[in-house]
Structures are given as C-alpha cells and as structure tokens.
Design a protein that fits this description.
This protein is mainly beta. The chain has 1 helix and 13 strands. The chain has one domain (2-252). Helix content is 4%, strand content 31%. The longest helix has 10 residues, at 2-11. Mean pLDDT is 84; it is low at 11-30.
C-alpha cells in the first residue's frame, strides 16, 4: 500500500508545470519542444511470450511515439530526459539491485545531452559514447520526492555505501539505475521493448501502469552532486499522462 500511495501522489501532478520553482535555476533553462500528444497514452500492455521466454512491453499514444524530444540544455546540469515509463510491482532484487524500498519502473528514455549506456551502441555507428537521442531502457527505483513537481525521483545512494548492489550494466551514477541494453522500437503510435524472462528473475506475474513524463538532471554547476541535496539528481518535473488516471497499477501481465 505504501508504494501505491506514493504513486497516487504523482497523479496529483498530472498537467503540472514542467519546471521547478526558484530553488532550481538549472530547471528553468530548457524550453519544451514536446508535442504533448506524443506522450498522451491511450493503451499499454505487457505480454508474456512463453514460446520465446520474454516479456513484451508496449505503449500506444495519441500522437506518434518517440517523435518529439526536448531541446538540449548543452550541459549535464539541467539536461532534459523524456520518457515513457512502466511503474511495476516488481521488487528491486528482481532486476539486479540490492533490496531497497521504492517503485521499480522500466523507463524508455531519450536525452540529447549525454549517453548513459556505455556498454551499448544503440545507433550502430561504432561509437559507444554518442547514443543520445536514441530511445533506450533503464530500470530505475523511484521514490517520493516533494522537491519536484512530479513528486518522484530516482532513488540515490551514498557512493561510499558498499552494501548497495547494482547490475553490472549500470551506467556508473550514484542512483538505483540500470542500462540493461534491451532494444526499443518505435512504430507509428507505438513504442515497444522486449525483456528476457531471466532478466526479471522469471517474475512474469506482476502489475503495472504507464506514464508519459518529462524528467531532468541536476548535478550542480560544477558537476558535483551530493545525495539528499537541494534537488534530486534525476527528478520527474511533468507528467503528460497516466493510463490508469490514478496510478493504481491495475494492469496485469497477460
């Protein structure tokens, strides 16, 4: 119930302003170039394909999935992140993190200012450092965060805390975030990703929801960032749509 209550809090911010208040200067600098219909979710599904041993995630939107993305900030501090997000009832251990409280979500993202998938070459050009506006997935753990209009942020940790475990494919940031490398496909009004069963420890019976959201990175002007700082390293600043309307995670894997 605690996780559901946190998600319900996020629903209250649907349609909220995209940027934070005066206590986050970097959050006011990037102007939106988003066509909001591209993030207005009409339907979503997660299908367990037993024949191939995989989970097939799909979101369909009113506009064209993945067509519009935010304008670059030109630096990491204040960098925009666009996303189609599947909050789930999976546990953190199911996707390779150590045990921790929060909402495990599969976020399909694109961002023009940085590449956070160092193991993968998503655009296939041989350069592993330039895959920025290429849609790609992240496993994240979300927590309630009243510092941002969207009410949630990716959970951070102290880099000195040796008890924290991350998947080997994590991008090296002090957050519960993984870059698993699953291929994301956009086609018309649909965006899709396939997750092998073993990558969720064969937990194929879970509930989920679907959210279109705008997020933003805050590192501090010098690039430093302390956990629990003035603003989260990666927070939700605007929610374009929530499929269930109330983020109750009512949908079941089929």
């Amino acid at each position: 119930m605690k996780k559901i209550s946190m998600l319900l809090g996020l629903a209250l911010f649907t349609g909220a302003v995209a940027f934070a208040g005066t206590d986050c200067d970097s959050c006011k600098k990037v102007k939106s170039t988003i066509v909001e219909s591209d993030y207005k979710i009409l339907s979503a599904s997660v299908t367990h394909n037993k024949k191939w041993g995989q989970l097939e995630f799909e979101i369909k939107v009113q506009g064209q999935a993945g067509r519009s993305t935010s304008r670059a900030a030109g630096k990491m501090n204040g960098a925009p992140v666009d996303g189609y997000v599947f909050p789930t009832t999976l546990k953190s251990e199911d996707v390779g993190f150590s045990k921790t409280e929060g909402i495990v979500a599969l976020a399909l993202t694109a961002h023009p200012d940085f590449d956070d998938t160092p193991l993968w070459d998503e655009n296939g050009d041989g350069d592993y450092k330039n895959d920025k506006i290429v849609w790609h997935p992240h496993w994240v753990v979300l927590v309630e965060d009243k510092r941002v209009p969207g009410g949630l942020s990716v959970k951070e940790f102290d880099p000195a805390d040796k008890s924290v475990e991350l998947p080997k494919t994590n991008p090296g940031m002090p957050m519960y975030m993984d870059s698993p490398g699953f291929q994301v496909v956009t086609e018309g009004n649909a965006i899709r990703v396939v997750v092998p069963d073993y990558r969720v420890r064969f937990k194929t019976d879970f509930r989920y929801d679907a959210v279109g959201a705008y997020m933003q990175v805050v590192t501090g002007e010098g690039g430093e960032h302390a956990a629990g700082g003035k603003m989260p390293m990666l927070g939700v600043y605007k929610v374009y749509s929530v499929l269930s309307k109330n983020l109750s995670l009512p949908y079941q894997v089929k």
